UniProtKB/TrEMBL annotation:
SUPFAM superfamilies, alphabetized: Multidrug resistance efflux transporter EmrE
Family membership noted in the UniProt record: Belongs to the EamA transporter family.
Alphabetized InterPro entries for the sequence: AA-Vitamin_Transporters, EamA_dom, EmrE-like
An annotated GO cellular component: membrane
PANTHER family per the UniProt record, alphabetical: EAMA DOMAIN-CONTAINING PROTEIN, INNER MEMBRANE TRANSPORTER
Acetylation listed as a keyword: no
Protein name: PEP-CTERM protein-sorting domain-containing protein
Length: 289
């Protein structure tokens, strides 16, 4: 449970860290820097745990496409959403990935939806609509349709990543390092042919390193340890519900974002839908971001 609380505590700082870092650099620059830091951290952990042989010998065929999904596509879209939206909105919309996974599991894994699944989806996505329209629920003119679309696309990519990896036999740490080994060179090419990487001062560097070290790195390791150590994974998965309120508080205190009433109402609806789904199935949690 302490591992789980540690991971959730770090994830609670993610929205604030993203907004601070994106105040210094572009989403692509942040993605490249954070991925490089995370790749180095995972490489050290792979070596220390004696997994270098496994990491070098097998699993690269899966990593070839998995690395393009995570970190490349997922985080570029997610950082794009945070760059365009208030952190509270991007964070809340991104929390619907678990429901997206439940619906995508029907065509991909052949699972069936229950009435509670449908009800949970209706409740949660009414919260998405509330946040996207900033409370003007009868107005179809979104404040930032591209930003909202990116936030929802990130949930689609994250859910697809975990569903397609359902038969991935690589150990989690090896899989993460291999995926980033594929992702970092791709991001480097995109950066070189695109805007390039500029020096944004020590504060910008520190913010980017924090994202890679804690959000993509240490939090992932703590979560995996939590899932493997507890006797019942539902105990740990329930800790995820602590993260949004703490995230909102940090965004207010550090970034200075006033909490919009529409965000509070929408977040309650989203968490209510997730809670209903969790109560019904008590699934083993995937990694949150």
């Amino acid at each position: 449970m302490l591992f789980g609380l540690g991971a959730v505590g770090l994830w609670s700082t993610v929205a604030t860290a993203f907004k601070v870092a994106l105040g210094y650099m572009s989403p692509l620059e942040l993605m490249w820097l954070a991925s490089l830091v995370s790749w180095a951290l995972m490489g050290v952990l792979v070596l220390r745990r004696g997994l270098a042989g496994e990491a070098l010998r097998r699993g690269w065929r899966t990593a070839a496409w998995a690395g393009l999904m995570n970190p490349v596509a997922y985080y570029l879209v997610l950082f794009g959403a945070y760059d365009r939206l208030p952190g509270q909105e991007a964070m809340a919309l991104n929390y619907t990935w678990a429901l997206t996974m439940a619906f995508l599991a029907v065509p991909i894994l052949g699972q069936r939806l229950t009435r509670l699944d449908v009800l949970a989806g209706m409740i949660a996505y009414s919260g998405v609509w509330t946040i996207a329209t900033r409370g003007a629920v009868f107005d179809v003119a979104f404040a930032d349709p591209l930003g909202v679309g990116m936030a929802l696309a990130s949930t689609l990519l994250w859910a697809l990543y975990w569903l397609l990896n359902a038969r991935d036999h690589r150990s989690p740490l090896v899989a993460q390092w291999q995926n980033f080994s594929v992702g970092v060179p791709v991001l480097s090419v995109l950066l070189l042919v695109g805007p390039g990487f500029a020096w944004h001062g020590w504060a910008g560097l520190g913010a980017g390193v924090y994202v890679g070290l804690f959000e993509m790195g240490i939090a992932f390791v703590l979560w995996q340890l939590a899932v493997h150590e507890v006797s019942r994974t539902a105990k740990v998965s329930n800790l995820i519900f602590l993260s949004p309120p703490v995230s909102l508080l940090l965004l207010f205190l550090v970034v200075g974002e006033p909490v919009l009433p529409s965000t509070l109402v929408g977040l309650v609806l989203i968490l209510g839908g997730l809670g209903l789904q969790q109560w019904q199935k008590s699934p083993a949690p995937a990694v949150q971001s």
